[in-house]
Fold this protein.
Amino acid sequence: GAVVSQHPSWVICKSGTSVKIECRSLDFQATTMFWYRQFPKQSLMLMATSNEGSKATYEQGVEKDKFLINHASLTLSTLTVTSAHPEDSSFYICSASYGTGTGYTFGSGTRLTVV
Amino acid sequence: QKEVEQDPGPLSVPEGAIVSLNCTYSNSAFQYFMWYRQYSRKGPELLMYTYSSGNKEDGRFTAQVDKSSKYISLFIRDSQPSDSATYLCAMSIKISSGSARQLTFGSGTQLTVLP
């Protein structure tokens, strides 16, 4: 149980275009979702936290106008990288919470390459 | 100083060896401690979760927490080549009543188990 499906698993886009990444909780309602980015050989860096039906809370240094997060339902959250640039190339991972305690499950990640 | 420190390795051991992975932390408010395993280009998967100081065992894995020293460990017995991955420690505090806790990750230790 507690599976999060993340799509796409990889995407290549041209500089200046926008890319949308989806995370769906398949068998539970995700009250909170977290979005991370991970550079090669580095740990996960939290970008933002979103609760269903409310605006996302962004970490310091993360541009909220560039990384648009929508969590309109308890089973779907999306991250849109707007006007992507090569420096946005990274591994993006979502995580969903299904309650208190250890209720975190991660998506399989999306490798974004901006050319 | 980072809130969570983890030796990035890389760590190479022969098959069958006992592996010891460690993290230290500075924030005494951390209440929950987790170990995740991450294979290349995949999302992290939860291995172990602990709350109180002491040991917790699950198969070949033992998680140890020493809150007085702010030190946690993961031991892997009879290591296998399939254990080769990056191991991330993660910790959390309660961010608000009814909300999910935000995870703070260590930098990850890259482990290779040689056949």
Observations:
- The longest strand of chain A covers residues 44-51.
